[in-house]
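An example makes the point: we print one protein in full, the chain in one-letter code, the fold tokenised, without further comment:
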Amino acid sequence: MAHISSPTQIREIMQKHQLTFHKGLGQNFLFDAFFLNKIVESAELTKEDIVLEVGPGLGVLTTRLAERAGHVIAVEIDQNIIPALKEITADYTNVDIIHKDILKTNLAEILPNAQSVKVVANLPYYITSPIIMKLLTEGKSISSIVIMIQKEVANRIVAVPGTKDYGVLSIAVQYYAQPEKKLLVPAGAFIPAPKVDSTVLHLAVPNVPRYTPQDESLFFKTVKAAFGQRRKTLVNALSSAFSEISKNELCEIMKQCGLKENCRGETLSIDDFIKISNFFCEKKRK
């Protein structure tokens, strides 16, 4: 079957298989060939690559990935759409379709451990963040992630300290990977059209950790505490979460970290948060 590249083709396939758009699963299918090809180009695929596609839907992107990559593992949650997906990808022997919920899937069971895996996906808006964090924290063999997500979420992911979009999600993703916006995809390129535009985002995942705090869980607790009450100064926000540390001690820690006592969490870099959490870690050991 030729590549799907129009709303008419999508409607015909759905009618043939008696399918309806499942709003609860965030099914908005990208049909515009220009943007589909740009997504594939952004992934820089070769025949040596294994690709994990999350939410392939009708396989609009899957067939294009299969032509560039050595192997495509497509994980789809909607059982009803599987027959259509299998029909559309039938000519591609390098495509494996797995009916699973990616958030409930052990990635180690479906991804080769010894090889580099590239993720390419049009993620459902309503579970974008959980999927990204699962891929980053559990996908040990993943080296690159190219995802199309809601524009506002992409802005939060790439945000830098001191901007309104900077927050826990920015730090959580940047802790594990280097994000880069690739292109904007207008709502009109989808069927049905969502209410917002999308952004194609590339996350480069290094072979070694980007950051190494003494206690990773304590680092993330510090970050979440800092942004839990954004209007408060960092000292006041942290004192609520770390009641065992006095405000005077917190002020001293800020000073030793080269930070002002009245600074707020949104002005701190990841390195700043690591310095603070390392002080907390040392204090716990004493």
Q: What stands out?
A: The chain has twelve helices and nine strands.
